[in-house]
Amino acid sequence: MDEHDNDSEQHELEKLRMKKMKALMDAQKRQQATQERVVSINDKVLYVLRVVLAPDAFSYLERIKANEPMVYQAIFNELVSPDVITNIDYLIAIINRQGGVPRKIPLDAIIYLERKVKGIKGKIQVKKGDGEMMDLGSFLTK
After folding, report:
1. I need a labelling partner for 109 at 20 to 30 A (CA). Which of 2, 19, 32, 140 fits?
2. What is the pTM of this model?
3. Burial per residue of 39-64, b for 16 or more beta-carbon CB atoms within 10 angstroms, e otherwise
4. Farthest CA pair distance, the chain
5. What is the pLDDT of residues 42-101, one digit of tens each?
6. Domain count, the chain
């Protein structure tokens, strides 16, 4: 009887081990699926950006991404709203059906967003008669 109880306990322990192992494997599969979904969403967003941005604007944005990730993230958040991410498959279907977009976002818009994020204000310089340069505001107040 004692040996039978021992076998039963071993069997129960083995069942518990298998159950725990299965739970761990399932959790790992879920995590991997989530990562793949995130990667695919990022790929889709990148595809949409590549389509809607002019080529020079897209390459400029990629340079910002490489050199100034925080600035890139702020610009990205301006360009890509949560609605875009939610409806990314629909947007891609429309782009594919129409063969692209009618107007692309120009480089100027990306530079504007970059300057806005960095807090750079535009300054118009005026040349006075004696060759001295001064900003427009100062020139107009004199």
Report:
1. 140
2. 0.59
3. eeeeebbeebbeebbbeebbebbeeb
4. 112
5. 888 898 899 999 999 999 999 999 999 999 999 999 999 888 888 888 888 888 888 888
6. 1
How high is the pLDDT of residue 139?
64
Which token pair is 85? 């991410």
Residue 23 has pLDDT above 60, yes or no: yes
85 lies in which domain range? 2-141
